Amino acid sequence: KRGKHVSVKGGNQKRFVRLSSLPEGYREAEIRAAISGEAKREGRPRPKPERSFNLLIDIQSKLQSKGKGFKRWATVYNLKQMSKTLLFLRDNKIDSVNQLNVLATEKQEQCDRLLLSIQAAEKRLAELAALKTQIINYSKTRPIYEAYRKAGYSKSFLEEHRKEIMIHKAAKAAFDALDIKKLPRVKELSLEYEQVLEAKKADYAEYRQVKKETQEYWIAQRNIASLYAAEREADEERQRQEEKKQR
Question: Mean pLDDT across the chain, nearest whole number?
Fold first, then answer.
């Protein structure tokens, strides 16, 4: 299709593609030279490596654009929020989308590890508290249970001291379930409880900070993705308008 720019479309393509937008070696002048025999046969041109750019500069240049795509984007996303994202990228010395994605993944993994550590600590704290309670109950009710055993497991004794005997049996069953052969001291359990609790508090404080940082990476990813999506939509709209004019 001829117009300001020559465009082509394959049989299975929905949209025309301008030759001027194709890689080097496939543009109009080069194709004409190849057809006329003026071009040197150097084989298929190698694709250029992806352009490296500074993400901060690239975003700032896009924000200065006042086209329709930018206006639509600005109605959805707060420019102040994008300014915060720019400061975040600068402070963390992030200059590419790939670097941002890698750091975001690492932060999320760190956040997940801390959460697992907190959950493990909470489980251990519950186990220690329960074990400590059972040991105390076992010790308090042991004299009554010994008397019950010496009484030949008398029914009348059981009825008189049922509560204490049931508590003692429950504690013994708990020890058997945990395969405890020798009961630890309550003082030792209390010490371990304090150590686990302190470790959990430290992990939780770090978790809150890392979670906040992870959310900042998510926001940066979302804002940047939305900005580039707006640019793509604007380019597609511009191409559709050019195609209409050429028809």
Answer: 82
